[in-house]
Write a structure and sequence with these properties.
263 residues; Fructose-1,6-Bisphosphatase, Chain A, domain 1; seven-stranded mixed beta sheet; globular; 29% strand; D-Maltodextrin-Binding Protein, domain 2; 8 helices; alpha+beta
Length: 263
């Protein structure tokens, strides 16, 4: 568990740095080459994560690090996959729906994932052989000596007998997603549509507050790795859209295919 403890405590530290910047309204915004936004908070969290996890001796693939060519990373058996601030657009909109995402990937599959949502101070994690968990008021409750004290095993929410709860992106709701939802076999249930930012969508399926998350639009590996592990070890499927194949990581192209997360 030392590795998991290290990643959990690092996510909390990075989240605190993000929240400090967020609360002080003290951040700059610039555009990256793909026109996505980058803030001071992204860089501050990335610096903390790299400083804390470099000692693990594993390669770190982070959205905000220099991206290595496939030839240099194709033989990685294990690596740390990081999105230091997932939901930068939500951060800028100031709706609180942003997260820190850190995953351990082994042989192309996430085997450990940690997501920390500084607002409302909720920590999610999942690990092979250890199931998945949620901790509220994490900045107060988390203890490296007993990480499960005060945590709830996932899924923690009861199924809804009347509604099929579909969660979709707040900033990237595509026409294809709309058509997918319209064509769902609801088995007589009403569709309840909820919008969320960042990787909180995957966490909703993992915790049981949503039944399905269709992502029929672009995402990168660092957007999904941590949530993939949490959902998987909470008993959910994370599959490529239109197939039974699980999402894979450290591909030559770090862009994910469309996918579905489903309980």
């Amino acid at each position: 568990m030392p590795l998991l403890n290290k990643i959990l405590s690092t996510s909390l530290e990075a989240g605190k740095a993000i929240l400090d910047i967020y609360n002080k309204h003290n951040y700059d915004i610039e555009s990256k080459e793909d026109n996505s936004p980058l803030t001071t908070a992204d860089l501050a969290a990335n610096e903390i994560i790299n400083e804390n996890l470099t000692s693990l001796g594993l390669p770190i693939l982070s959205e905000e690090n220099r991206q290595l060519p496939y030839e240099e990373r194709k033989d990685w058996r294990e690596f740390i996959l990081v999105d230091p601030l997932d939901g930068t657009k939500e951060f800028i909109k100031r709706n609180g729906e942003f997260t820190v995402n850190i995953a351990l990937v082994r042989d192309g599959v996430p085997v450990m994932g940690v997501i920390y949502a500084p607002m409302p101070d909720t920590l999610f994690w999942g690990s092979e052989g250890e199931d998945s968990w949620r901790m509220e008021d994490a900045s107060k409750n988390f203890s490296e000596n007993n990480i499960h004290e005060g945590a709830q095993k996932l899924p923690a929410e009861a199924p809804d007998k009347d509604n099929l709860r579909v969660v979709a992106s707040k900033s990237h709701f595509s026409k294809e997603t709309e058509e997918f939802i319209h064509n769902l076999d609801t088995e007589g249930k009403e569709i309840e549509l909820v919008s969320r930012g960042s990787s909180l969508k995957i966490c909703m399926v993992a915790e049981g507050s949503a039944d399905i998350y269709p992502r029929l639009g672009p995402t990168m590996e660092w957007d999904t790795g941590a949530g993939h592990a949490i959902a998987k070890f909470a008993g959910c499927d994370v599959k490529v859209y239109g197939s039974d194949d699980e999402l894979k990581y450290n591909k030559e192209d770090l862009l994910n295919p469309w996918f579905i997360v489903e309980r």
